Each structure stands twice: as C-alpha cells, then as structure tokens.
Amino acid sequence: MYLLVGVGVLMINPGAGRAVVEEDVRALREDMEQVKKDLAEIKSILQSVTKRQKPEKSTGTVGVTGGTVLGESNAPVTIVEFSDYQCPFCRRYSLTVLPIIQREYIDTGKVRYIFRDFPLSSIHQQAEKAHESAHCAGEFNKYWEMHDMLFEKQNDLMVPSLKQYAGELGLDSTTFEECLDSGKYQVAVQKDVADGQAAGIRGTPSFFVGKSGSGDSITGTIIRGAQPLAKFQVIIDQLLSDHASDAGVSPESDGSPPARLP
C-alpha cells in the first residue's frame, strides 16, 4: 500500500524527481571542479620540488685522514672509498674490481688507496660492529685481512662470528674481544660517516678519485655504486697522464692492453 502511494506521488509530481537529479549532478560537477583544483595544486608543488632538486655533483672534496691506507703514501693518484661491510654492492666491488686495481695500480705505486667507514646502520644493523672489528684487527696489523674476510663472510656479521673470524686470522682472542666489546672505535667509525655525509655521500660504495696532494684532503671525481673496472681505469689513467705531463715525462706504458676482470 505504501509503495503504491509513493508511486502515485511521483506520478502526480514528476518535476520533484528531476529536481533531485539535477541537484545531484550539480553537486557532482562541483566536486569534480574541486578535484581538478586539488590536482593542479599537487602538480604545482611537485614541479616546484623537482626544480629545487640539484643534480648530484660529479666532483667533490673529501678528507684523507683517519682512513686506513693501502699503497705508497707518495703515489700520484688517491682513491678514497666509503664502504659498508654489510652492503652487497660493496662486497661485489671488493671481490671483483678492487683486486685488479690493487694489482695494476696500488702495488705498482701509482695509487694510494684509503678505506673509510660508512655503515648504513638504519638498514644494516650488523655493519657498525663489523667496521669496529676491522679496526681492532688493525691493532694486530691485520686490518686488510679482516676487511677481506668480512666481505667474504658478509652473510654472518654477528658479534660472536666477528670474534670467530679474528681467531681464524690468528689474533689474540682476549685482546681482540676486549677491543670489540669496549666500542673503542665507535667514535672513529661515526666520524667517517659524518665526514662522508659532509662530502655528499648518501650510499655505498662511493669513491673519490683525484690527484694526491700534501694536504688533508683531495678533490676528485665522484664514482657512485659498484661500477665496472673500466670506469675507474679511465679516470685513473687520465690522472696519471696529467701527472706525467706536469712532471715533464712520458706516461709509463709497456704496450700491454688494460687489465680486464677474469
């Protein structure tokens, strides 16, 4: 009975139904206009942010003190690496590219190599202690041996394992464990991180490759990520050529092609 009455009302006054529909359409159009305005505002904000963003610098200046050095102190070219022992890309570089750079450039007196700590502790919770463990091993003149082992055994960098690795390197367990447990090198590691951030480092591995100097810093090309060997070779060879020209001698060359990864 109520249904019949409702139908009857619509039949008697059909204009009322059209009015309701028209009001709904009007409200929908207003909503759509507001959405368009909101989208336009969001687009404007995003464009403004994009314009303000600066491209990453291709060159930079970084300190060379505090890091662990490999190679001759008077080598004409210096490479400063910022690395994280728990970073898989750092591991890839360390196990593939670095050995070639060491053989071709570091061991031949052409490059001074400086390793600096940059543990990304927010995502790599085991990294900071791993970096401290390398410094503790350095007290036994085994820094680079621990460096290599940490990357080789990257899947397990828990503190008990770090102590086990020290034993495998023949380090005195009591002295090493006291060093690691005390956090003796925590401040040194954090200083490297702060220096890296100040120099524009945001991820690992990152490198500065430049001419060596007598000061506490170098200015050089920034290489970001685990780049192929050729990327380093081009920059290093150019710097060596520039150094030879400055010294008034011909760049050393044995006529052999540049080294390649195995």
Helix and strand element order: HHEEEHHEHHHHHEEH
Gyration radius, rounded: 31 Å
The biggest beta sheet reads: 6 strands, mixed
Q: Determine the mean pLDDT.
A: 86
3D shape: elongated
CATH class type: Alpha Beta
Q: Given the helix and strand composition, which structural class is it? A: alpha+beta
Name its key features:
alpha+beta, 10 helices, elongated
How does this model look, in words?
Helix content is 54%, strand content 14%. The chain has 262 residues and is of the alpha+beta class. The protein has one domain (59-246): Glutaredoxin, CATH 3.40.30. Strands 1-6-5-3-4-2 form a 6-stranded mixed sheet, with helices on both faces. Strand 5 (206-211) and strand 6 (217-224) form a beta hairpin. The longest helix has 39 residues, at 14-52. It is elongated, with a radius of gyration of 31 Å. The relative contact order is 0.14. Residues 1-10 and 253-262 have low confidence and may be disordered.
Sum this structure up briefly.
By secondary structure, the chain is an alpha+beta fold. It has ten helices and six strands, in the order ααβββααβαααααββα. Helix 1 crosses helix 2.
Write the layout of secondary structure elements.
Layout: H1 2-12, H2 14-52, E1 59-63, E2 68-70, E3 77-83, H3 88-96, H4 98-106, E4 111-117, H5 127-138, H6 143-152, H7 159-168, H8 173-182, H9 186-198, E5 206-211, E6 217-224, H10 229-247
Parallel strand pairs: 3-4
Antiparallel strand pairs: 1-6, 2-4, 3-5, 5-6
Helix pairs in contact: 1-2, 5-6, 5-7, 7-8
